[in-house]
């Protein structure tokens, strides 16, 4: 009997605490955890898509992202950078196209970014595939490497680059992997010979807008 009373009292206390919680505070908490309206995240493949990916031999060297925008988007651009003298220098900006859909998918395929990259962007009304290769004198086959990629859902802000991939290639026996957020602090990579990055940018300016400004 006492055990039943204690349980009842505990339940009443819990209900009282909920009733006494300031509704304004509850609203503030919920607003802080509200997911972004525009975002990019790792794609969650369906069973059929996963089977097709495995059939094509896609592995960790192929990264697929889904992105969600609003109707004001006009352009999407994927840039590849190399770290030179402590600064990011553009190597390739081939994934640039006029884009008008609110949802889309980006696929990146590479083994090492020093030599190759394949970019595919698809949506309801857009389809674009670009690829670049480089013949460099260095032999990267025996180098150590570390690749990090964006894994969490990330908010999209127009005209702001989002780092998607950071790859380090080095002759050192040990290489440390850095989160992609450290794209903004390139000095962290000073101990490595070859560091590459892939970013994506969504814009409310079309390609024709850029040309007219020039």
What does this 3D model show about the protein?
With 214 residues, the chain is α+β, with helices and mostly antiparallel strands. 21% of the residues lie in helices and 38% in strands. It contains four helices and eleven strands. It has helices spanning 2-20, 23-32, 47-55, 207-213; strands at 39-42, 62-68, 75-84, 87-98, 103-109, 116-122, 127-133, 144-149, 154-155, 162-170, 194-203. A six-stranded antiparallel sheet has the order 7-6-5-2-1-9, with no helix packed on it. A hairpin with a 4-residue loop joins strand 6 (116-122) and strand 7. The chain is globular and about 45 Å long. It starts with a helix and ends with a helix. Residues 1-21 have low confidence and may be disordered.
Protein topology:
Blueprint: H1 2-20, H2 23-32, E1 39-42, H3 47-55, E2 62-68, E3 75-84, E4 87-98, E5 103-109, E6 116-122, E7 127-133, E8 144-149, E9 154-155, E10 162-170, E11 194-203, H4 207-213
Antiparallel strand pairs: 1-2, 1-9, 2-5, 3-4, 3-11, 5-6, 6-7, 8-10, 10-11
């Amino acid at each position: 009997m006492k055990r039943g009373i204690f349980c009842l009292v505990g339940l009443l206390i819990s209900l009282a605490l909920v009733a006494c919680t300031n509704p304004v505070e509850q609203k503030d908490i919920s607003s802080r955890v509200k997911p972004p309206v525009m975002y990019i995240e790792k794609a969650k493949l369906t069973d059929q898509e996963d089977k097709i990916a495995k059939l094509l031999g896609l592995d960790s060297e192929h990264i697929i992202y889904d992105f969600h925008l609003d109707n004001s988007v006009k352009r999407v651009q994927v840039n590849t950078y190399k770290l030179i003298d402590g600064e990011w220098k553009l190597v390739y900006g081939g994934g640039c196209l006029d884009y008008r859909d609110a949802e889309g998918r980006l696929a990146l395929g590479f083994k090492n970014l020093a030599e190759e990259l394949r970019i595919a962007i698809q949506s309801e009304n857009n389809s674009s595939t670009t690829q670049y290769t480089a013949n460099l004198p260095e032999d990267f086959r025996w180098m150590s490497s570390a690749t990090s990629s964006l894994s969490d859902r990330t908010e999209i802000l127009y005209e702001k680059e989002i780092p998607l991939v950071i790859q380090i290639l080095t002759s050192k026996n040990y290489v440390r992997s850095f989160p992609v957020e450290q794209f903004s602090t390139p000095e962290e990579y000073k101990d490595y010979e070859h560091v590459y990055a892939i970013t994506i940018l969504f814009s409310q300016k079309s390609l024709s807008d850029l040309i007219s400004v020039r």
